[in-house]
Design goal:
mainly alpha, elongated
Length: 167
């Protein structure tokens, strides 16, 4: 939303985010969240090297900063370096097991790298962690179909116990 300016409030929210990050850096010049935010708020199309370099510098000082590490992994995937991104994602998932975005990112990287058995295990962990989440349920059904496992996908979607229930 913020980086592409989509939505009616995109430019306003981007201005607020930049202002908040700059203020955070005034209070703490080494604030890794603010540093990562400012890197990600700049247009990245055609500037992935700059973003990657900035995130690597950030991680030299803050090697366990999960947001920065996941953003670096994202930058690597955006430049087609899925395999290089996987270890970063795995580190984040170990540190942040309840962060769905990291778990989904790891699943996608594993699948995109052709590591389907590991992708299956990762996706099963995501579904087990949030069994009522429609997105993870749909992702699993879709993944099973895309990987040529139609009968398994049908069994999965027809299993009433596996379906998310709306609250």
């Amino acid at each position: 939303l913020l980086t592409d300016g989509s939505g009616a409030d995109g430019p306003r929210l981007e201005t607020f985010a930049r202002s908040a990050a700059r203020r955070a850096l005034e209070l703490d010049p080494d604030n890794p969240d603010a540093q990562a935010a400012l890197l990600l708020l700049q247009p990245v199309f055609g500037r992935w090297n700059e973003v990657e370099s900035g995130l690597r510098k950030l991680l030299e000082k803050h090697p366990t900063h999960s947001i920065g590490q996941l953003c670096l992994a994202y930058a690597l995937t955006e430049t087609g370096r899925w395999r290089e991104a996987i270890p970063h994602m795995q580190d984040v998932v170990k540190r942040e097991p309840m962060w769905p975005a990291a778990s989904f990112a790891l699943f996608e990287a594993l699948r995109s790298s052709g590591r389907l058995e590991e992708a299956d295990l990762q996706l099963n962990e995501v579904v087990q962690a949030s069994p009522r989440n429609l997105g993870s349920w749909l992702t699993k059904a879709h993944h099973l179909m895309l990987t040529g496992r139609g009968p398994e996908a049908l069994t999965f979607v027809n299993d009433a116990a596996s379906r998310p229930v709306a609250d």
